[in-house]
Amino acid sequence: MARFTFKLPDIGEGISEAEIVAWHVAIGDRVEEDSPIADMMTDKATVEMESPVTGVVVELAGEVGDQVSIGAALVVIETDAVDAADEVVAAPPTSAQAETAEQYEAENPGVEEVVDAATSTPPAEAGVQLGGVGNEAQSDVTTTSPLGPRPSPGGNEPQTAASVAHALASPAVRARARDLGIDLASVKTDSDRVRHADLDAYLRYGSGEGYHPPHASRARQDQPIKVIGMRRRIAENMAASKRAIPHFTYVDEIDVTALEAMRADLNANRGGRPKLTMLPLMIVAICKTIPDFPMLNARYDDEAGVVTRHGAIHLGMAAQTDAGLTVPVIRDAQDRNVWQLATEITRLAEAARAGKLAPSEMGGGTITVTSLGPLGGIATTPVINRPEVAIIGPNKIVERPVFKGDEVVRAKLMNLSISCDHRVVDGWDAASFVQGLKKYLETPVLLFAD
Description:
Elements: E1 2-7, E2 17-23, E3 30-31, E4 36-41, E5 46-50, E6 55-60, E7 67-69, E8 73-79, H1 95-107, H2 171-180, H3 196-205, H4 229-244, E9 247-255, H5 257-268, H6 278-289, E10 298-301, E11 306-309, E12 315-317, E13 319-321, E14 324-326, E15 329-330, H7 338-354, E16 367-369, E17 390-404, E18 407-421, H8 427-442
């Protein structure tokens, strides 16, 4: 047998280390060539590592959440090639294990076969994890007789549920106790087995002994969750944005009655094209408004003290996935029509949910839109996607009565939020930009005018 050390390859330009976000194997598992072994996350993407050989995993580079340097050992695999120097040998039994086994044999002379945990450790279990992870002393051996509990000296002495670990009861009684969440060992009985009448008595008087019906409200146990992978990236980015950027948020109300009517007409005649949501129409309005407010389509380099106003609009689209929030980028949004935008939004959203976004699709944005869709809300105060300087948040559309002259009519209204970096964008500029958007969204025919 020979050991093959798989070192973490260079998985991205400028990357010095990667985080373990998932193991697909454990020590002792047999892996085939090209089968997945781990998911590694960098600042740009998550990459699936595949095994280059076939064999048994004997060492891992750490736990989920640990960082591994490029070129460091990730996995050690024992292959079928012959190599005496690397042979895995099971560890000899410890003195504590030997004493435990001898003591059990002395106390149980009637048991002929006892599983000797001290000498039956499989070779695969002799592997340890690198960096001290899992390199602990073997645990004490707990031995139990395969024949079950020894009978009491009394022979035919009557047993009660309070006097034995496993109370006697019929299958129907056991099923009822299980449904009620009752431990049969805690039910008192005057006979040799627990009966339905004993359960009834326990239900009447058992609450004082700590019993609670399964449907009663009880606090759940605390659950510590390690912040790793995408969740860690989100936490770091959000904290850095709030620390470094003096945010301010402006909110205005927009009447989207005409826009929603036009969207319904477009969808009714879309043919084979994707169904339009509010988002592609919103993006068209943003692209038409930004040329008059170039300070919003910008990135701020804190260290250099330079604000770059971009000519092209690379629009970030916040998307919620099972792993957390991610922001794929629509490149050159200003050059796409509403149907092309709808197609690209669908493609990027599906790739984000599947975890298949390319690194080039996740960076380089110049302004971001975040929307909760129908879930919405009255107003939001979105956090800027640093180093950008603005983020736009359309909110939920609601139908309310409004005055039109002397008449009260039904209207579809939406609040629009924008958060800006006050170092770069003044409040007047943000408010003026939203008024420009409002013009296009309340008179949607302008969206299709050159």
